[in-house]
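SAMPLE LOG
Freezer: B-3
Tube label: C17
Construct: single chain, 243 aa
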Amino acid sequence: MDERAPANRGQECAEGLDPERRAAFAEELVRALAAYCPGSRPEPRGSLARGTADAYSDIDLSWTVPGDRFADCLAAARDVLGAVRPLDSLRTDPDTRESGERRLLFAAFRGLPLFWRVDLEVVAAEGGAGGPVPPADDDWSRPASALANAVAATKAVLRGRPEDARGLLERGLRRIDAPEGASGQWFADILRLVGIAVEREPGLGPLADRVRALAESHRAVLGGGPDGPGPDGSRGGAPGTGG
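STRUCTURE (predicted):
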């Protein structure tokens, strides 16, 4: 993992969330995956595929590969994705890290908004891999997962989904053994989660700085609780759609 990229407040705020830029980047990724493995099928999934994505939606892709190329494509994913744009991190979903048929990878790219994480589902066609596939060997950690929850909770508040935000924060705080759960004061809860996460894993400092910058850039909305106004009088966030 390389979390050395500095915080960039501009890329985290609404002005940097250009759906056309995101769509163009997704197309670049699809082309790169297809070029690496001829005969594979990379394609959008989720809200991008349905046409329901909003400015906050992440980039969900599916990459169906020949069974005998499954292990090879997994091993090459970091280089293939990183050739499109430098990676900040690439992690494997713990629930799929030992699967011989499906792996879900989470990729964060340098210089892109944190909301635009790439979730790449690599699937072996024709009933599974053609040989043994080793478990994922990456740097997934509970504090890093908790920071991802903080980003997702921020997104939920901006979309006007306070119950989703509370659930995400509760799960994130539990992952890092926080002494208290979510209070519903979004900005304070997110900063508390970030602070504990980086105490548990100091190497996440640069990523934690980016998550703090994200919260700061939306403080007008995050400053209030689920029913209370933020510092500028706004309430709860604007509703949105997408995944």
